[in-house]
Design goal:
By secondary structure, this protein is of the alpha+beta class. Helices cover 41% and strands 10% of the residues. The longest helix is centred in the C-terminal third of the chain and has 19 residues. The structure holds heme C (HEC) (2 copies). The site of one heme C (HEC) has 24 residues, from helix 2 and helix 4.
Length: 342
């Protein structure tokens, strides 16, 4: 992939502020100064000396689909380079990649991977599980092992970067050097070829069909406001969801209610089992829970009912493990909205 702009280091005043962008978009997971947290550390010398600026740029752009690391496609190239510059400034040393290897034997690499790597990176390189911030992390592992069988990782990392990472290891993390793991240079080349072979399995996988799913589900109710609310609550209860609370959104603030011109009510509901499943998969989903459906009556008397489209969750979070649950929630919402839309 061609990278057009490499001029972040010339950034004159008025250009994007990498430190600020980092604080907004990255610090919550990677730490204020790159020390790590939910996300792997970014400031370690072994990391920064093993990767190129292009690797950092592409990692930010693509994220790691199916993992927690989001894709930041909405940042401009300039902003992304500014963040790269900010990360770079944490280490004084320059990037020193190991020499190119020779093409290895992926079959042999597969066996070596199973023996030496799968324990942390998962059987097929899918990556360690959990978010790293709660009990889902293995206690002896302060950093969750990244997914290697991952389109985002493989798009960003050249063979040479993977080779360098193996030869050098990453001091300060559980990732040891090949020498410490008892691997020869030939073993390293074989494993690199095996990791590269994962790419074949992405070729036929279609682009995420829901990437452009509407952010909201919305229907116009044929019933008046109060009737719509009543019908919705029945539909929610009929599906073994508990109504947690109802919250008038513009109560008292605009006086709209007194004037009778518009009404706006949020109905919160949920199912404890569902809630816990979702939170275990990804605690960040908490910002969307409990489920919420809002009913609004406009000045023209038209009543609309809206909900966040759950199919958007997993795109937002880049977490394929949310797929099943978000589909279930989508069906639930569609069924509930369906009861007032005929
Ligand atoms: C004890 C657990 C453990 C073992 C065993 C292990 N790794 Fe790692 N590996 C990690 C962790 C943790 C990281 C993240 C390090 C960091 O934060 O920079 C990592 C990082 C990597 C990376 C860089 C990935 C990225 O996104 O930057 C590669 C490539 C890698 N490991 C390959 C391997 C291979 C190949 C093997 C087997 C030969 C192996 N690892 C064995 C835990 C492990
Ligand atoms: C919601 C948490 C989260 C946010 C926000 C986030 N990351 Fe990450 N990031 C991760 C996780 C987790 C990984 C490890 C990927 C894996 O587990 O496969 C990662 C991996 C990375 C890597 C690869 C590290 C390596 O060892 O190769 C880089 C680089 C990175 N993130 C940079 C950033 C930058 C820059 C931002 C802000 C623009 C950012 N991340 C925002 C969670 C996050």
């Amino acid at each position: 992939m061609a990278i057009l702009s490499t001029t972040w280091w010339n950034s004159a005043r008025g250009e994007p502020d990498g430190g600020r962008l980092y604080a907004i978009h990255c610090a919550a997971c990677h730490g204020d100064r790159g020390g790590g947290g939910i996300g792997v550390p970014l400031s370690l010398p072994d990391f920064l000396s093993s990767v190129t600026d292009e690797y950092l740029f592409l990692t930010i752009r693509h994220g790691r689909p199916g993992r927690i690391m989001p894709a930041f496609r909405h940042l401009s190239e300039q902003q992304t380079w500014a963040i790269v510059g900010h990360i770079r400034a944490w280490a004084s040393g320059e990037t020193r990649l190991a020499p190119e290897g020779t093409p290895g034997d992926p079959q042999r690499g597969r066996d070596i991977f199973a023996r030496h790597c799968a324990r942390c990176h998962g059987p097929l390189g899918k990556g360690g599980t959990g978010t790293g911030v709660n009990f889902t992390r293995l206690h002896d592992q302060p950093v969750v092992a990244p997914g290697l069988n991952n389109p985002g990782f493989l798009a960003a990392a050249s063979d040479r970067i993977i080779r360098t990472t193996l030869l050098k290891g990453r001091r300060g993390t559980p990732m040891q050097s090949a020498a410490k793991m008892g691997l020869s240079e030939q073993d390293v080349d074989d494993v690199v070829s095996f990791i590269r072979s994962f790419e074949k399995s992405f070729e036929n996988s279609a682009v995420d069909p829901e990437a452009d799913a509407d952010p909201a589900l919305m229907v116009t109710s044929p019933l008046p406001f109060a009737e719509t609310v009543k019908r919705l609550k029945q539909a929610i209860s009929a599906r073994r969801q508990r109504i947690i609370r109802e919250h008038p959104l513009d109560d008292g603030l605009t006086g709209a209610r007194e004037s009778g011109r518009s009404r706006h009510l949020a109905i919160y509901f949920g199912n404890i089992r569902h809630l816990n499943t979702l939170l275990a998969i990804d605690p960040r989903i908490g910002i969307f829970l409990p489920s919420r459906i809002t009913v609004m009556e406009g000045e023209d008397g038209k009543v609309t009912v809206t909900a966040v489209n759950p199919l958007r969750f997993r795109n937002l979070f880049n977490n394929a493990r949310l797929e099943h649950t978000s589909r279930e929630m989508h069906e639930l919402y569609v069924a509930i909205l369906g009861e007032i839309s005929e």
